[in-house]
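Thread amino acids onto this structure.
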C-alpha cells in the first residue's frame, strides 16, 4: 500500500506554485500582530481617558489640547489610527475576496477600500500633528480660556 497526499480543496491538479511574496500570508500575520497591538493601545487610551483622573468628566477641549501638546500622545493616537484603519481595510479586503465573485468588481471594491482608508489615514494624521488650540491671529472671543491671548 502506498501513501498518497491529498491535495488542498479547490486546488487544480497541476497548479504551479507562485513565485514571489505571499501577500495573503503577510496580510494574515498583520491582522494578528496589529490586533494585539491595538488591544494594548485601545485599552491604554481608555484607561487614561476614562478611568484615571476624573473619568469621563475630564474630557473636554482643554484635555485633548493638553494631550496633543506632547509628542508621546500624538504618536500613540497616530499609531492607533494607522493600525486600526489598515487592520479594518485588510479585513474588508478579505471579505470582498470571499464574497465577490466577479474579478473586476472585486478589484474595484478593494481599490475603493484602500483609497478610503488612505484618505482617512492622511486626514487623521494631519489633524493630530497640526492641532493647535491657540492659533495665531484668531479672534479672542473664539479662543479657549487657557490660551495666552484670551
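Threaded sequence (150 positions):
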Amino acid at each position: 500500500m502506498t501513501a498518497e497526499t491529498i491535495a488542498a480543496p479547490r486546488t487544480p491538479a497541476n497548479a504551479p506554485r507562485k513565485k514571489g511574496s505571499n501577500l495573503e500570508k503577510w496580510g494574515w500575520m498583520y491582522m494578528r500582530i496589529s490586533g494585539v497591538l491595538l488591544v494594548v493601545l485601545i485599552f491604554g487610551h481608555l484607561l487614561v481617558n476614562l478611568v484615571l483622573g476624573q473619568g469621563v468628566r475630564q474630557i473636554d477641549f482643554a484635555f485633548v489640547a493638553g494631550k496633543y501638546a506632547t509628542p508621546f500622545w500624538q504618536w500613540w493616537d497616530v499609531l492607533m489610527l494607522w493600525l486600526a484603519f489598515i487592520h479594518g481595510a485588510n479585513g474588508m479586503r478579505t471579505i470582498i475576496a470571499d464574497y465577490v465573485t466577479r474579478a473586476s468588481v472585486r478589484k474595484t471594491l478593494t481599490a475603493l477600500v484602500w483609497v478610503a482608508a488612505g484618505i482617512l489615514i492622511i486626514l487623521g494624521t494631519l489633524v493630530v500633528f497640526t492641532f493647535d488650540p491657540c492659533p495665531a491671529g484668531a479672534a479672542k472671543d473664539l479662543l479657549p480660556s487657557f490660551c495666552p491671548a484670551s
